[in-house]
Design goal:
about 290 residues, alpha/beta, Arc Repressor Mutant, subunit A, D-Maltodextrin-Binding Protein, domain 2, 3 domains, two-stranded antiparallel sheet
C-alpha cells in the first residue's frame, strides 16, 4: 500500500517549489519532508524528484502525484477525506482558450486548480501520461480511459495591421512575399501559421518569425505591425470590425475543433466543471 503522507509531501514539494514550502504547508519540519520522500523512493525503487532548485518530479514522481490527486478528488466526492483538505484538479488547456472563453468555466472546478498550459495539438499527451484529470484538446479521441465531448471549433484568421500589409505585400499576398514577411509564432509547438501557409500556397514556407508565447502579447504584436499571425476571431473581433487588423486573404480561416476529454475515473466528480466548460464553449466557439 502506498504511503499517502509521503505522497502528500512529494506533491507539496513540487507545488510549493521547495522542501521548506512543503514543510510549512503540511505543518512539519523540513527534515520530516525529506525523510518521507526518501522513504517513498526506497519503497518505489526509483528517484521521484530532482532536488533542483527548483525541485522537479521525475516521470515516476509525476505519475504518483497524479495518482494522489485522483484519490483525493474521489475521497472528497465520497466525503471520506478526513483531513478536510480541498482536492487539487490538474487540467491541460491551450492558451487561446484560457485567454478568451475557458477561465470563467474553470471557476466551476470542485477544488483547487493546477493548470497546464499547452498547445491543443499536444494537450492529449498529458492525459496519455495520466498527469492531468482533463484537457481541452484537438484530439477527438476518446483516449484510453477517457470520455470525450465535442466543444466546437475555434476559428483562426491570418491577419495583420493595414500598415504591415502595405509594407510587405505591395504586389499582393504571394508565396514570394509570404516567404519574406515576418510572422508571429506562439512557441515551437505552434503549427497554425505553417498549416495556413500550406493551405493557401501548397508549399512549405519558412519565413522569419518572432516567438511571442503569450496570447495577449501575440495579438498586441500583430496590431503593432511586428508581423502577421493566426489570431482567434473570439479575441480579435473588435479589431477586425474597426479595421485595426485585416485578413491577409479573406475566406481562408482555419477552424480548429476542440474537445473536452476527462479521465473516466474522475468524470463523475468533475461533472460541474464539465457542464461549465460545455456551456462556455457553446457560447464562444463555432458549432455544427
Amino acid at each position: 500500500m502506498l504511503d499517502y503522507p509521503a505522497l502528500a509531501a512529494l506533491a507539496q514539494v513540487i507545488r510549493r517549489g521547495s522542501f521548506e514550502g512543503a514543510a510549512s504547508a503540511l505543518g512539519v519540519t523540513q527534515s520530516a519532508i525529506s525523510q518521507r520522500i526518501r522513504g517513498l523512493e526506497d519503497r518505489m525503487g526509483a528517484v521521484l524528484v530532482h532536488r533542483g532548485p527548483p525541485p522537479v518530479p521525475t516521470e515516476a514522481g509525476a505519475r504518483l502525484i497524479a495518482h494522489f490527486d485522483r484519490v483525493r478528488l474521489l475521497e472528497s466526492e465520497l466525503g471520506e477525506d478526513g483531513t478536510g483538505a480541498v482536492p487539487l484538479i490538474r487540467v491541460a488547456v491551450n492558451a487561446d482558450s484560457l485567454a478568451s472563453w475557458a477561465m470563467p468555466a474553470l471557476a466551476a472546478a470542485p477544488g483547487l486548480l493546477d493548470l497546464v498550459i499547452d498547445d491543443q495539438d499536444h494537450a492529449d499527451q498529458w492525459l496519455r501520461a495520466g498527469q492531468v484529470a482533463a484537457a481541452i484538446t484537438a484530439q477527438p479521441g476518446p483516449l484510453p480511459g477517457c470520455d470525450s465531448l465535442s466543444l466546437g471549433a475555434m476559428r483562426y484568421q491570418a491577419v495583420a495591421s493595414p500598415d504591415f500589409i502595405a509594407r510587405h505585400f505591395t504586389a499582393g499576398v504571394t508565396p514570394e512575399a509570404l516567404a519574406q514577411a515576418p510572422l508571429l509564432t506562439f512557441n515551437t509547438k505552434d503549427a497554425l501559421q505553417s498549416r495556413w501557409l500550406m493551405q493557401v500556397t501548397g508549399r512549405r514556407i519558412s519565413p522569419p518569425t518572432h516567438l511571442v508565447p503569450s496570447t495577449e502579447a501575440f495579438a498586441a504584436a500583430t496590431r503593432l505591425g511586428m508581423g502577421w499571425g493566426m489570431n482567434p476571431d473570439v479575441l480579435i473581433g473588435d479589431d477586425l470590425a474597426a479595421g485595426r487588423l485585416v485578413p491577409l486573404i479573406p475566406g481562408t480561416a482555419l477552424d480548429i475543433a476542440l474537445h473536452w476529454q476527462v479521465a473516466r475515473v474522475t468524470a463523475n466528480a468533475l461533472k460541474p466543471l464539465t457542464r461549465a466548460i460545455r456551456a462556455a464553449a457553446a457560447g464562444a466557439l463555432a458549432q455544427g
